[in-house]
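so my prof wants the structure for this chain in the tokens format not the other one, which i didnt know existed until like an hour ago. anyway here's the sequence
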Amino acid sequence: MDEICVMQATVLKTLANPRRLEIIHRLAEGPCEVGRLAEELGVPQPSVSQHLAVMRSAGIVEAAREGREVRYWLADPDIIRACDIMHSVLMRRLTRLGMLGVAATPGPIATHEAPPIPQPV
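here's what i got, hopefully its the right format
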């Protein structure tokens, strides 16, 4: 099996968690300390720390200690672009199924610009 496919599967498995996606969207705005992330997301700090540790081991986020705090940021800005592309795919799917008004709600995902997606000819 191709090593890049194995790596991609690992990253996608890590991203398959709504809380981690919330963290990623917050980190797309800029680096942040664990305590502040927890406060902004309304999640207990130990939970945020655990999610960040999983994402760090998958290479999604990086961290550095600054005094008593640990500051996290996205390892690569294209991570948010990948998330935004999947969001666009799902929005189009819901639109085709006529379910957009039922299932979709505006959220932090809509604040990032995804690259244009070629339309079939």
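also thought this was worth mentioning. The helical segments are 3-15, 18-27, 34-41, 45-57, 78-96, 100-103.
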